[in-house]
Amino acid sequence: ERERERERKTERESERESFSPGEMHEDCVADLPTCLLCVCLTGSVYCEEVLPLMMSVPTLPKETAYLYARFNMIEKISNGDFADIVTLKRIDLTGNQISEIEDGAFSKLTLLEDLNLSENRLVKLPMLPDKLTYFNANNNHLKTSGVKANAFKKMTKLRNLLLADNRLEAVPFIPDSVRIVHLQNNNITEVNVNTFCKSNDTYYLRPSLSEVRLDGNPVMLSKYHDSFTCMNVLPVGKYR
């Protein structure tokens, strides 16, 4: 009996060693620092103008659907920043110092619909989720070489494509679903029949496209009158 008691005691001690209250506590409060710095509501995290200014994406509660981390000092978005937050539907990173986003940073965000990267320092775009309906990268340092030819090609639900105040030399591919395109104040010098329409399909129409801004670019739109025949509205821009 004493031998069996010693065995049971050894088992209990082994169980206590394998169970660490400290580890459990760490898991339970892992989200607490972010929610002290920021405002955490059900499904939403507001980290706007956090003092001292936030330098990186904070650890988010796993049920986060909406992140607003505007006007901080975030410089880089890494692949691991959102990898475990698959519930995200909206990310707003306006007004940071972001100059680099790793190519897989948004790859696991299959529910993401709204992505705002405006007023940063981006020179190229990462891979973007196909389900985006709103994408804003206004006021960055983007050149055409930093935007892949198929960057928006699979975005069949995209409605707003905002790329104003960059350094683009050409109009990127624009999906049929897009309604509003802002490309003002870039370095676009020309358009062609395939920029908005299709040269091999005279019946092709873009009924959804209601606003195209090309003002503030060098391109003289009056030279390309055949390039807008599929559209209900003419682009805003220079005609003379």
From TrEMBL:
| UniProt cross-references to InterPro entries, sorted A to Z | Leu-rich_rpt (IPR001611), Leu-rich_rpt_typical-subtyp (IPR003591), LRR_dom_sf (IPR032675), Mimecan/Epiphycan/Opticin (IPR043547)
Assigned keywords, A-Z: Disulfide bond, Extracellular matrix, Glycoprotein, Growth factor, Leucine-rich repeat, Proteoglycan, Repeat, Secreted, Signal
A GO cellular component annotation here is: extracellular matrix
**GO BP of this protein:** articular cartilage development; bone development
From the UniProt record, list the coiled-coil ranges: none
User: Where does it live in the cell?
Assistant: Secreted, Extracellular space, Extracellular matrix
Region: Disordered; residue ranges are: 1-23
Pfam families, alphabetized: LRR_8
Source species, domain of life? Eukaryota
Q: Which GO terms describe its molecular function?
A: growth factor activity
Query: What role does this protein play?
Result: Induces bone formation in conjunction with TGF-beta-1 or TGF-beta-2.
The entry sums up its family as follows: Belongs to the small leucine-rich proteoglycan (SLRP) family. SLRP class III subfamily.
Name recorded for this polypeptide: Mimecan
Organism equals Takifugu rubripes
Top-level taxonomy: Eukaryota, Metazoa, Chordata, Craniata, Vertebrata
